[in-house]
């Protein structure tokens, strides 16, 4: 939810999209159910994630000077 809250704060999602996505996630009982989110909502999340560079962050190797981070 924190990510979609940030997307709303950055005006990358409308208040209606944020509400609908949040409600879908709250109702979902599993990650598989979240993946069944209606296409327009997924598209909104994907566009916002692209602007935020979420995929780039996930693909970046961890910093070796990340302090007390434990890698498993």
TrEMBL record:
* UniProt-recorded name of the protein: Uncharacterized protein
Q: Which organism is it from?
A: Pigmentiphaga aceris
